[in-house]
Fold these 4 entries.
Entry 1:
Amino acid sequence: CEDCGKSLVGECKLHGPLIRAKDRVIPSRARLTLPHYLTLRVLELRAGNEQILGVFAKKVIQKRTQFGPYVGQLSTKLTCYDESRLVLQVLKDGGKYFLDTPNEDCGNWMMFVRLARNQEEQTLVAYQHCGEVYFTTVKPIEPHTELKVWYAADYAKFMETSAVFIKEESDVCPLPPVAKEPIVPWICSSCGSTFAAFALLESHQCIHKDRV
C-alpha cells in the first residue's frame, strides 16, 4: 500500500482495496471483418455462456451480391464441427482440404452464417471458385432478415451431398409454420435435369455455357 508503505497480502485494512481497471475487450478478427450493413445477433445462450450467433441484414441487400472469400485454415481433418454451419472444402494443388475455423481469430464473419433448413429461408448459395469459397445472394434480402446458406448444385456434387436439401428439424430460432405448396421443378433445356429452385438451374446452366 503506497499510503502506509506496507507490503500486504490482500487489501489494506486501513486504506481499503485497490480500484481495479480492466483492459478493453478487443473484438475477434472474425467480428471485425463484418460489413457495416450486417450485424451479429445472439440467438441462444448455451452452457458455459456459449453464444449461438446469426448474421442479419441491416439494410436491403441486392440479389447477386457476392461475399468472400471464406477465410479458414486448410486442414485434412475437420477439428471444429457445428451442426448449424456448413462444412466447406476446397480443391488445392490436387488435394481436397477442409476450410476449418477452430476459433474466431483464424476466420472471417462468414463463419457465423448458419445453414438454411429449407428453400424458403435460404438467402445465400455457397460455391467454389479458384480454390476459394464464396457466398452469393440468391434473392433480395430485407432488413432484419437472417443470412442463411446452402450449397450450389456443382459444389454440392463436390461435397458429395444433395443440392436440394431436406433438413426441417427444430432450430434455435424456430419459424412459424408455413403452408407447403407443391414444388414445380425447373427443367434444364439442354440436358433435361430438374431442379427445385431457379438459382440451382442457373448455376447448372453455367456448365453448358462453359462447355460450349
Note: The chain has a mean pLDDT of 82.
Entry 2:
Amino acid sequence: QIFRRERLNGHYEVGAFVVGNTLSSIPYLFLISLIPGVIAYFLVGLQKSIEHFTYFALLLFVTMLLVESLMMMFLMGVITGAGIQGVMVLNGGFFRLPNDLPNLFWKYPMYYISFHKYANQGFYKNEFEGLTFPNPQQGANSSISGEEILRSVWQVDTGYSKWIDIAILFGMVVFYRLMFLGIVKLGEKVKPMLKKRVGSSKKTSPVVEI
C-alpha cells in the first residue's frame, strides 16, 4: 500500500523499490538465519569447523532470501505462494528420493526447478563429503565413504561442487526478483487499461427504465 501511494506520487521507480526492498531485508534475513543456525548446527553435532559452519549459514541465508523472493511474487495471494512451496517440498528429494519420484511432472520438471533439491544437496555435501563411516554390513573392519553414502543412500548428484548448489540458488533469487519487477511493471500498465475499459462499458451500457 505504501509503495503504491508513493509510486503514484512519483517518488521513485519500480526498479528502485525492488532493489531497496531486497537490500533492506538482507540484515533481517541474515540474523534469522544465523541465530537459529548456530543453535541447530552445534546442537546436533555437525562438523565443527569454520568452513563447514560458514557454508551452512550462507546456504541457510540464501534459501531464506529465495523464499522471500518467491513470496514477493504473490503479495496478493499468500496461499498461492505457500501452495507452490508445498509442491516443491514434496519433490525436493527429502520425503521421497529422486529415483522414487514419478517421472511425469514430479521429477520432470518439478524436481529440477524445486529449490529444495539444491538446498538439501548442499547441506548433505557439506556434512558428508570427506568423512568415513563404519560399514557393519560389509564386515567388522570395513568402512564406507561419505561420498558413497551421498550417491547410494541420498541419491545426491556428486558430479559438481556444493558451491554450485549455492550459485544455483542465488541465480533463482535473481530470477524471482526480476519476475517480481516484471509483475509490478505489468500491473501498472494493465490496471489502468482495465479500469478504463470497465468505465467505458458502464458509460455505454443502456439504462432500462421500469
Note: The mean pLDDT is 88.
Entry 3:
Amino acid sequence: LSVASLEDPVVMSKIRQNLREKHARHIADLRAYYDSEIQSLKQQLESSHSTAASEELRKINQSLADRCDQLDAALSEASARIKALENKNNLLEKQVADWRERFCAISDNSKGLQERLEETRASHKEKDNTISRLKSRLRELEEALEKAYKVSDNKNTRLQEENKMFQNLLGEYESLGKEHERVKDTLNTTENKLLDANTEISDLKRTILKLEAQLKQVEHENALKLRH
C-alpha cells in the first residue's frame, strides 16, 4: 500500500471491512466444515448401532470420540489463530493511526521547513542584491581612490615644493631671528648708554644751573660794583 492509500480513511475502512468479512467467512466455513463432519460422524454412529456388534461399536465410538476431540482441538486452534489475527489486525490499525499522525506531523514540519526555505531564499536574494550594490560602491570607491592617488601625487609634489620654500623661509627666519637678537643686544646696549647719557645730561644741567646762578650773582656783584 502506498502512503497516499494509508492516508485515505475510506481506503483503510474498506481494508478493515474486507478483513472482517474474510475472517467471518473463514470462521463460518470452519464451523460449517466441522458441523458437517460431526453430523457425518453422528450418522455413521447411528448407522453403526444398527449394523455392527457392540465391540465394533465401541471401537467406532472411541474412534469417533477421538475424532471429535481432534476436531475440537482444531476448532480451538483455529479460534485462537483467528483471535491472534484479530489482535494483529487491531495492532496494525493502531500502527496505521500512529503512522498517519506521524505523517501529518512530518507534513506540517515539511511545510514549516518549506516556508523557512522560501524565507531563506528571499533573504539570500536580498543579500545578493546588497552584495551587488556594495561591489558597485566598492568599484566607485576604488576609482575615486585612484583619482585621489593621482591628485595626492600632484599634491605631494606641491607639498615638497612648498616644504622647500618653507625650509628656505625657515632659514631666513632663523637668520632674521639671529639678526634680531643682535639688534636687540645692540639696542639694549644703546639704551644703557642712553640712560648713562641722560644721567650725565641731568648732571650737566644741574651744573649749568649752578654756574648760571653763580654767573648771575657775579653779574649782580659786578653791576653793584659798577654803580658804586
Note: Helices lie at 3-7, 9-51, 54-227.
Entry 4:
Amino acid sequence: DGFNTIASVAVLFGKKQLGLSLKDLLIAAVITPICAFIGVYIFLKIQQYFNLRTKTMIIITASLYSLIPIYGLIGFVAPFGFKNLWEVWMFAVYFGFSLGAIQSFCRVLFGSIVPRGHENELFSLYEITDKGSSWLGPLVTGLISDTTHDLRYSYWFLLVMMTIPIAIIFTVDVQKGKDDAENF
C-alpha cells in the first residue's frame, strides 16, 4: 500500500503543489514504467553480484523507497524536497527504478514460501490483499490533506507505511516458510 500510495500522492502533489500540467504528468507516467523495467534488471544484477538473498533485497529496496517520503519532508525546511519541476523528473526515475525491483522481489519471496499446488489460491489472496486494501493509503492521505490543508504532511504517514513493513520483513524466517511449505 505504501508504494501505491506514494504514486497517488505524487500525482496529487505534482498537480496541487507544483502546478504540473497534464503533459508533465503524462511524461512522468511514461518515465516510471521504463525505469521500473530497467530497475528490475539492475537490482537483479546487484543481487547476483553480491550473492544476496531475496529478503535482503526487499529490505534494501524498501529502505531506498523510504527515502521518497523523507525527501518530501525535507521540503518543510529546505528549498528543495519536491518544490521544483526537475525534482518531478528525478522522482519519476527513482520511483520507477525502485518500484519494479520491490514488486519483483516481493513476489519472488512470496512464491518461494507458497506450498506446491496452492499457488493459484495464495497468489489470488496476495492480489486481493494487495489491491483490496489500496483504498486505505489514499483515504488517510486525503484526510491528512483536508485537515492540515497541506499535502506535504501526508509524507509522515507514507514514511510510517514504508518503515513498518521493513521492520516486519526482518522478522520473517524465510527458510522456515520454505520448510513449512514443503511439509504442507
Note: The chain is about 80% helix and 0% strand.
